[in-house]
Amino acid sequence: MPGVFGLELSSVLLLLIVTLCVILLVRSWLEVPQNIPPFPVRPLPIVGHIPHMVDPRRKLMEWRKTTGDLFSVYFGSTLVVVISSYDLLRETLVKQGEYFSHRHVGGILPVLNKPEGIVGSSGEVWKEHRILTLNLLRSFGMGKHEMAENIIEEVSAYLSEISKVSGEPLDPKDLTSRSASNVICRFLIGKRFEYDDPAYARLVEIYENFVDLAKSSGLLHWFPNLKYLPGDLFFHKKLINNFAEFTEFSRKRIQDVINNENQDCKEENFIASYLKEMKKREASGKLTHLSTDNLNLCMSDLLSAGTDTTTTTLLWFYLYMVHYPNVQDKVGPALNYK
Description:
- With 338 residues, the protein is mainly α.
- It has helices at 9-30, 56-67, 86-95, 123-139, 145-163, 173-189, 198-216, 219-222, 236-258, 270-284, 292-323, 325-336, and strands at residues 70-75, 78-83.
- Keywords: Iron, Membrane, Metal-binding, Transmembrane, Transmembrane helix.
C-alpha cells in the first residue's frame, strides 16, 4: 500500500520506530539522574559501564583513585553504587543498615521466578526466615559438639572412599561435593546418603550443572529480556529446567514429612522443625511468611550455598597442599594433634 512520499506504510512505521528508539537512547544518555554519587565516566546507552569491565577489580580500583570512595556505575540499566572505604561501609551497612538491608531484585533470581526463600527475599520475609534458620541451626548444634560429631562421621566416610583408589590419580571434585552436600542434608532432612545412591548423585550433578549454567548466562543478570530471543542462546530454558529439578528434591522430602513417610530419618531436622513452627504461628493467628513454598526455596538455598562454599574451599586447600609440600608437612601433625 502506498504511503508517505511513495514509501510503503510498513517502511514508514519501521522508520518511525527506529527514529523513536534513537531519540530515547540519546535522551537516556544525556539525562543524568540527580542526587546520586558521580560517575567515573559517562555510561553508554543500553550497556552502561559494562564495556569497561574486562577486568572489573582493576577498573573499580582505578576509578576509586580518580572518583573517590563513593561513585556510581550502570550495569545495563541497573544503577550500582560502589562503596570503597571501611568508614563508608560501616556507616551504610551497620549504622544505617535498616535502610540498606533490602536485596536488589535483579540478577538471575527474576529469571528463575524466585523472589523469596532466604537468598531471594528482602524485608520481613527475609528477616523472619533468617531468624528462624539461625535459631534452628543453633538448636541442631551449630558450632557445638553435636554438629562436630556429624561432620567427623562424614569425614570418615569421605576418607574411606578416597582410600579405595589405592594411590591412583583422583579428581576429588565430585566426591568432595557429595560429602559437603551430605553434611547439609543431615541438617535438612535428618539423614546422610551413600555416595553411590543414584538419586543423590543426580542431585549433586544437577547442582553442579546449575552453577556452570549460571556462569555461562551472565548477560541475563543485567539484560533479563534476552531470555525472549529465539532459541536458548543464554541458557534460560536450561536454567529453569535445572532449577525445577533441583527444587523437586526438596519438595519430595517436605511431602514425605507431611505424609509421615520419613521414617528412616530418626534425627530432628530442618523440615520437621520448620513445619512445626509454621503450624504454631498459623494457629496463634500471627502474620507469618512461613510456607511450604518458602521452605522449599530455603532448603535449596541452604543446600546450594553450603555445598559450593565448602567444596570450593577444600579444593583450593588441596591445590595449595600439593604445590606447597613443606606446608603440608606442618599441617598434618597439627590436624592429628589431640
